[in-house]
Amino acid sequence: MREQALGRHLILEIWDADPHLLDDAHALEQLLLQAARAANATVIQSVFHHFNPYGVSGVVVIAESHLTIHTWPEYRYAAIDIFTCGPKMDLEAAVEVIAAGLGGRMVQLEISRGQGVRRAQRQPLALSAAQ
Amino acid sequence: MREQALGRHLILEIWDADPHLLDDAHALEQLLLQAARAANATVIQSVFHHFNPYGVSGVVVIAESHLTIHTWPEYRYAAIDIFTCGPKMDLEAAVEVIAAGLGGRMVQLEISRGQGVRRAQRQPLALSAAQ
């Protein structure tokens, strides 16, 4: 089924991670950038914010879609998403970087995005004509 | 179950949308910002990119997490995620704005993030002591 999808979307739930790391926006940005590079992604831009009293939200926009992280240090919990398209992406490598960096326990769910879209008629010419 | 989760994550699959709108980074940015406002979100930053020959990736970072969109205009398809935390968020209002703006057909999936985390011991003091 996967070959009929346009994107792979990994949903990572991480518990029991180091709360100080989960509250360090700079360290988390470096970790997600490292994960993006490990996945052969082309990084376009990253945006990370620390919230008071604690917690970090971060997004790495890549040419192949995105990585996001939201942390609740007080619960030692992080929610990470890796959304990619393109056959050259190595999502497993990105997951390994994140797992090694954050520690704790990880539950992983993969969702195929755009499933079945390729069965519909592709219409590149109609779009080109309008540009 | 939902009250035990830290975040609500809506996954939207949209087919048969207007391909010209799906290729218009500025219009999509305005639409997602409008959706964020409708959901009572506090917008921190938005990043939108148009890809050649077509397609848009966009992220709206909100204080309550994020909205993302990735489009394949040649397939009339868009993948949208709305990730929020906080009881004041009105996700349904955001979905209404997006559905009205993009048209087409939408399939919606909701995932509870951080499910069961609140059952673990919250540790705010340990974190505060380290800051």
Description:
Two copies of one chain form a homodimer. In chain A, a hairpin with a 5-residue loop joins strand 2 and strand 3. Chain A is of the alpha+beta class. The longest helix of chain A has 14 residues. Chain A starts with 6 loop residues before the first strand and ends with a helix. Chain A has a six-stranded antiparallel sheet with strand order 2-3-4-5-1-6, covered by helices on one side. Chain A has a single domain, classed as 4-Layer Sandwich (S-adenosylmethionine decarboxylase). The first copy, chain A, has four helices and six strands, in the order βααββββαβα.
Evaluate the radius of gyration of chain A. Answer: 17 Å
Q: In percent, how helical is the residue content of chain A?
A: 25-40%
* N/C terminus separation of chain A: 33 Å
| Broad structural category of chain A | alpha+beta
From the 3D coordinates, which CATH architecture of chain A would you assign? 4-Layer Sandwich
CATH topology of chain A: S-adenosylmethionine decarboxylase
Order of helices and strands of chain A: EHHEEEEHEH
Could you name the CATH homologous superfamily of chain A? S-adenosylmethionine decarboxylase
The stretches of 5 or more residues of chain A where confidence is low (pLDDT under 50) are none
Give the spatial strand order of the biggest sheet of chain A: 2-3-4-5-1-6
Quaternary form: homodimer
User: What does the main sheet of chain A amount to?
Assistant: 6 strands, antiparallel
- Average of the residue pLDDT scores of chain A: 88
Count the DSSP helices of chain A: 4
